[in-house]
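Recap quiz, item 2
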Amino acid sequence: MQGWWSITTLFQVEKVLRLVILIYSIRGTMSSLQDKFTKYLENESIFQNKDILSNTYHPDDILHREEQIDELASILAPCLKGNDPSNVFVYGTVGTGKTLVTKHVCDELLNVAETSPSSLDIIYINCKMKKVADTEYRLSAKLARELGAEVPATGLPTDAVYDRFFEAMEEKEGVVIIVLDEIDALVRKIGDDFLYNLTRINDNLESTKVSLVGISNDLNFVDYIDARVKSSLSEEEIIFPPYDGMELKKILKQRCEEGFNDDVIGSGVISKCAALAASEHGDARRAIDLLRVAGELAERDEKNKVTTEYVDQAQNKIEKDRVVEAVRNQPKHSQIILYTIINMDEGEVHTGDVYKEYQDQARKAGTDPLTQRRISDLIAELDMLGVINARVVSKGRYGRTRKISVDLDSHITKKLSNMLEDKFYL
DNA sequence: AGTCCACAGGAAGGGCAGGCGA
DNA sequence: TCGCCTGCCCTTCCTGTGGACT
């Protein structure tokens, strides 16, 4: 028999102590969490109705878009008498109210159509949504499903899916309006053949009439589609100009009145949000985001007033969240490349240098490196995402390459680097 | 003016997984 | 079960590019 202070006993004592500490720390954390939640419940929220500050909220009164609403309504009105309206192409930069106005007019149309003799169906598709309109198969399957047909996620020949879509369309016996939001993304992914077929669909249908509403952020989009599609799609065009600072202020004021409690918004907050958003192409979505996030940050600090300092913090937070989320959703090798670029620490680097370094990092992460061709595409994708800045340059007889740099704040790159380091044990 | 470099980027196709229909 | 079809990720092969160098 060993003495009281034998090694085994010491280990046992240590284990018991660790357990006691763990229990106490868990109990401590739980009680502090409970305190936090209780305090949160006790504090009065600065928000009256936070949903109003969300981008999915549809206000009854859409400010500064009366002209566009009226125009779109006039174009689509013939469908109430069973006639096919002209195709419409709606365009304007991000956050100018295109989708909001289109949905608003469509909702009103459906309301009135309930009492009209002819049948009306409206299909709304956001072509930028992943797994929805990134292939011909998926888009035609989505349209067919919206019309009530059953189409499997894969397995059928594309022609068969087209057939089901046409059959479902024919069965409607009325007017169908197809709204394709972010239509430029659709064309970039699958070309304009599908769009051509859609614009010609009325030639092949007997009892149903179809009208297309295309919505695009890209003002030059129509320049790179087939001329026949262009003339057909752009029978009518509605342009959404960016909001100016004053218009944004009115929109924000409207949302503040309904979204926040009285006297919560400090002086200069609305003006600052409006000014920041106006400098980014008059983006109302951005302005509302800034306001909401500023409110959330103030509430987190247990303050009952949103000040301009919180708007600055909100601006940083939105940018940081956007980048981190975008990177988190990237494939493994894109993340390793980004980690490589961030840590090369040379300001601007070239594709060849990045590739050499990436090969080492990929092996460290326990994976086989991809080919340079594939990496070239992944670098281009990161550039498209706005995470890095990559521009093609010629170095004369030393070749053509991309100059790559990270175009982000140092605290964001640090956060990304740590996140990727932990993930891949680099 | 011609050559050369180091890629960019298009096209074609392989391999795999998932799903359908006979 | 098997053949066929899809999407996705990737490789291989190839042509094109633009400016420094000769």
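The longest strand of chain A covers residues 209-216.
Residues 152-156, 350-352, 372-373, 376-377, 380, 392, 394-402 of chain A lie near DNA strand B (CB under 10 Å from a C1').
End of item.
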